[in-house]
Amino acid sequence: MKGCDVSIENVSKSFGTFHALDDANIKIQKGEFFSLLGPSGCGKTTLLRIIAGFELPDTGIVAFDGKNVIGIDPNKRQSNTVFQNYALFPHLSVFENVAFPLRLRKESPREIDRKVMEYLHLVQLDAHVHKKPNQLSGGQKQRVAIARALINEPSVLLLDEPLSALDAKLRSNLLVELDTIHDQIGITFIYVTHDQSEALSVSDRIAVMNQGKVLQIGTPYEIYESPATEFVAQFIGETNIFDARVVECVPYKDDDYMVTLDIPELGKQIKVTDYDKTENGQQVSFTVRPEKVRITLEEPKTVSREINVFRGTVNEPVYSGFQSKFYVELDNGTMMKVFKQHQNYLEDGPEISWKDTVYVSWAANDGYIVEVLNQ
């Protein structure tokens, strides 16, 4: 495996009274595609700049393969950075932009030709060698920037929201290409983004950040299905989230527990399975994803104690082709989001419409206790 391990240990950084990073700890494995994900101002770009060497932390270290790189100049580290604004030389051709780092190192013309064409082929720009940046699309410019960053053969490639300036379709296509490039060269990628769909689709693991803190590190599946905090649950995808009180927690199957929750917003108790034992009376945060909630015109005929069922009225249906999103006002006035996938051809449109009386239901193992709010 190429690349190197990157270790961020107890890194903090302030700008005046603003705390950009608060004791960040992350271990990134060699060859991983690792994403730093969070809203604007959460500290992810500051952390990337510290890894790159453009900023110094107030406290903590950054280590590449166990060696502390704090204090080492950016151009002497094993990393290169791709910026969101491309940072290309407008007066140089595509070839010369990519060749620039090699010319600085005074490599031979033959070696420069070979390497530049190799990396332009990697990013599918063979036919654009002699063009200037102003003759390229946004996606092509970013591919030039990626080739230029990779031609130095770094152990770590740092990507600071590299797709944010592109339109949605181009961004999606280039993201797939970026993932393919990572698979081909196998070095460590550290990718900064505020777009959760980007992070979920390409990352081996993700660190979710907010207000300078690292809230959760895990695989896309772990982050989505088992969020560690209310913020993570709400930031990653869409969800229904409620405060609840534990009424009962009893052993269930294998090592799981069946928990009865009282949720004032829903007006009655519900069932949810959990890996951890919770105590009666504890205040917790409960979530159920909209795609895990079933919506029907008829009340479910067989309802076990493990199925939660509520009646309501469709307040707002939103049709988006592959699915419909329903905002359902339950009988007690609480609003729930429900996603219904369109798996079959709809000759007459969706069967559920505005103001229809519907039933929403979900199984106990489709909900999730996010966090205990009091100990």
What does this 3D model show about the protein?
With 375 residues, this protein is an alpha+beta fold. The protein has two domains: 6-234, 3-Layer(aba) Sandwich (Rossmann fold); 238-372, Beta Barrel (OB fold (Dihydrolipoamide Acetyltransferase, E2P)). The protein has helices at residues 44-52, 94-104, 109-122, 138-150, 168-185, 196-202, 220-225, 230-235; strands spanning 6-15, 18-28, 33-37, 59-64, 67-68, 79-82, 156-160, 188-193, 205-210, 213-218, 240-251, 257-263, 268-274, 283-288, 294-296, 307-319, 323-330, 335-341, 357-363, 367-372. The strands form four sheets. A six-stranded mixed β-sheet has the order 6-7-8-3-9-10, sandwiched between helices. A five-stranded antiparallel β-sheet has the order 13-12-11-14-20. The chain has a five-stranded antiparallel β-sheet with strand order 15-19-16-17-18, with no helix packed on it. The chain is globular and about 75 Å long.
Largest β sheet strand count, sense and barrel closure = 6 strands, mixed
Strand content range:
35-45%
- Give the tally of structural domains: 2
How many helical stretches? 8
Please name the CATH architecture of the largest domain: 3-Layer(aba) Sandwich
Query: Globular, elongated, flat, extended or rod-shaped: what is the shape?
Result: globular
Helicity, as a percent range: 10-25%
Q: Identify the CATH class of the largest domain.
A: Alpha Beta
Number of beta-strand segments: 20
Distance between the termini: 44 Å
